Amino acid sequence: MTKTPIKIATLEDYLNFDDGTDKRYELEDGVLVEMPPGTGKHEAIITLLLVRFFLEIQKSGLPLQPRPNGTEVLTNKQSRRPDVCVITNEQAQSIESTSAILKTAPPLIVEVVSPESVDRDYNQKTSEYAAIGVIEYWIVDPLENKLTVCLLEQGSYKQTVFTGNQLIISQTFPQLTLNTQQVLSA
Question: Where in the sequence is the signal peptide annotated (predicted)?
Fold first, then answer.
């Protein structure tokens, strides 16, 4: 049995949508896309990155905050819920007393690929995040055992793929000492 897609006319309708369940959704082209809970591996990778980013921010005194997948990012007319978002202190202040929906691009977004999100993470979100000015976008792919760092250059991403024991090179965290295997082994 195929479910009928739930269409949402406006962002305000999305913000006020309640289907009486605890299901999480992203708004994509005016349609709600259910975001099922991640696997234990998916959540372990998110947790590792949150901790490592937090420690790097503390060590370097950066005016940033890592956030888990409860913070949403508006991309044109879409609302995306990245697995990890590194936001500025100003962005954190702007959502302190309201819904955690960013209307400006965070410096860094991380998506962890799952079987149902391959095209969305590599193609749709890559173009959406570049269009709104996300400077650095990581695609962590446990299915292919790789991590892709996308850096924004003149409106599009230059992609670098990291595998195995290669240290991940990050513009946001230049002193980070983390390799792909550590991330994928979380």
Answer: none
pLDDT in tens, 92-119: 999 998 888 898 999 999 999 999 889 9
| Cα 15 to Cα 47: distance, rounded to the nearest angstrom | 26
Specify whether the CB–CB gap between 116 and 134 falls below 8 A: no
Residue among 110, 29, 104 nearest 67 (CA): 110
Can you list the residues of the chain whose pLDDT is less than 50? 1-2
Exposed, middle or buried by CB within 10 Å (0-12, 13-18, 19+), for 97? exposed
Angstrom distance (rounded) from CA 181 to CA 165: 6
pTM, two decimal places: 0.84
Tokens found for residue 112: 């962890």
Which residues touch 90 (CB under 8 Å, ≥6 apart)?
A: none
Using DSSP, state whether 84 is helix, strand or coil: strand
- What are the angstrom distances between the C-alpha of 86 and each of 15, 32, 135, 139, 157? 22, 24, 11, 14, 18
Structure tokens at 42: 């998916």
| Geometric angle at alpha carbon 26, from 15 and 18, rounded to 5° | 40
CB 27 within 8 A of CB 78: yes
